[in-house]
Design goal:
By secondary structure, the chain is an alpha+beta fold. A 9-stranded mixed beta sheet has the order 8-9-10-7-3-6-5-4-11. An 8-stranded mixed beta sheet has the order 13-14-15-12-16-19-18-17, sandwiched between helices. A hairpin with a 6-residue loop joins strand 14 and strand 15. The longest helix has 14 residues. The chain is globular. The N terminus is likely disordered. The chain binds fe (ii) ion. The site of fe (ii) ion (FE2) has 6 residues, from strand 12 and strand 16.
């Protein structure tokens, strides 16, 4: 860890070493076996429209569904998938539909933790936002009981689905839950979403005449904004056993502007990364994290980092659709940024690639581990500063070798971008 005189104290009395003094170590302290990110669930008020917009904007086909057509009278859910990345969009049906058949409101639900009242309250409070970060664990029941025994606030007790999968949830931050998913057997039938996603989901036939794939392959990190970092980090660390992977303090990116402190937690394999940010007060401009907390009505998910296997292709496809139902990106960096790029990265990127970075507005971050190509979208819904995507390609190391390339340049880029957006 950093020397005592280099630490920075957070408003909650938490001592952070900061980026340059932080010494990374992996104590392999997970309390239960965590395999990978499984899916991200967005709660919305109309899943058909929301899923289609994200499908088109991100190049992620809708691959499975659970709705009225599959016998689910409780909620409509559509699953988008690209590589290992799974996004689920869920909206409630009228609660009276199920009761007409003398069924309980949730009798036909495929997501057993779904609750009408919670879902409606969530959407009223947060707009379109992430409800669940789901991770695949070896044993969801064990993960749940272990978590609760170590202080996690339970949200939904373990439910066994079709003798094949177990789902359970604990509170993560704000109204976001950490969902544990595990599978009871290893039979995998590619045509059956029940074996690779969840039972009661049905496959949606691929629209082969219009294949969608812009190159997105997996989730790298899921970032939360919280009012107080010490409390949030200690809470999650205690019940998961995750270790600190990186730290950033307001000093790392300059205190003259609005600031934040940040800690990244990781599992043993460092494949599940949870960065969390808190606002720093008393600076010239209001912290963008504080602005987020006001617009989101409390803690919640700030952004998702998506790894592309070819960020140039992903960006070309996405930019074509920005104005026609897709997603928009941060403003282009100044031309001087790309003039300096040849001297900074000319040994890794060809002249053609540097030109393409400039045309597409891609940022380049280097350190001793490799090169990262990166760009941020604007926030994807109505709410200010809430829920955007951070596209990354781990250029020189390849997709499979590296997780969590959250270097200081990359952190500064996002910080300055948010400051530029934070007009309030
Ligand atoms: Fe990020």
């Amino acid at each position: 860890m950093g020397k005592e005189n280099e630490t920075s104290e957070t408003p909650g009395g938490f001592k952070l070493a900061g980026f340059s003094s932080f010494v990374r170590s992996n104590p392999r302290s997970d309390r239960f076996k965590v395999n990978r990110f499984h899916h991200i669930e967005f709660w919305c008020t109309d899943a058909t429209n929301t899923a289609r917009r994200f499908s088109w904007g991100l190049g992620m086909p809708i691959v499975a569904k659970s709705d009225l057509s599959t016998g689910n009278a409780t909620h409509a859910s559509y699953l988008l998938r690209s590589g290992d990345l799974n996004f689920l969009f869920t909206a409630p049906y009228s609660p009276s539909i199920a009761s007409m058949d003398n069924l309980s409101h949730t009798a036909t639900a495929s997501i057993p933790t779904f609750n009408h009242e919670t879902s409606r309250g969530f959407s009223a409070k947060h707009g379109l936002a992430v409800r669940a970060i789901a991770i695949e664990v070896d044993d969801a029941e064990l993960a749940f009981t272990t978590s609760v025994a170590h202080g996690a606030k339970p949200s939904a007790s373990p439910v066994l689905l079709d003798n094949r999968a177990v789902v359970a949830e604990v509170h993560l931050y704000g109204d976001v839950v950490l969902r544990y998913v595990s599978y009871g057997n290893s039979e995998s039938d590619d045509s059956d979403p029940g074996s690779w996603f969840l039972p009661k989901f049905e496959a949606v036939e691929a629209a082969s005449s219009f294949p969608l794939d812009y190159g997105i392959r997996r989730l790298d990190h899921a970032v939360g904004n919280v009012p107080e970092l010490a409390q949030a980090v200690n809470y999650v660390k205690e019940f998961t056993g995750f270790h600190e992977f990186a730290e950033f303090t307001a000093e790392d990116v300059g205190t003259s502007e609005s600031g934040l402190n940040s800690v990244v937690l990781a599992n043993n394999e460092e494949t599940v990364l949870f960065p969390m940010n808190e606002p720093v007060f008393g600076t010239k401009r209001k912290s963008q994290i504080q602005t987020y907390l006001e617009h989101n009505e409390g803690a919640g998910l700030q952004h998702l980092a998506l790894v592309s296997e070819d960020i140039f292709r992903t960006l070309r496809e996405m930019r074509k659709r920005s104005a026609v139902g897709g997603f928009e990106f941060m403003p282009l960096p100044p031309p001087t940024y790309y003039k300096n790029l040849k001297s900074r990265a000319g040994d890794v990127l060809s002249d053609e690639q540097i030109k393409e970075c400039e045309e597409l507005g891609i940022l380049v971050d280097r350190d001793d581990q490799g090169t990262l190509l990166q760009i941020f979208t604007k926030p994807v819904g109505d709410r200010y500063l809430q829920n955007f995507f951070d596209f990354i390609e781990l250029y020189s190391l390849g997709l499979e070798f590296m997780y969590g390339f959250i270097g200081l340049d990359s952190f500064e880029s996002i910080y300055h971008y948010l400051i530029s957006l934070n007009k309030f």
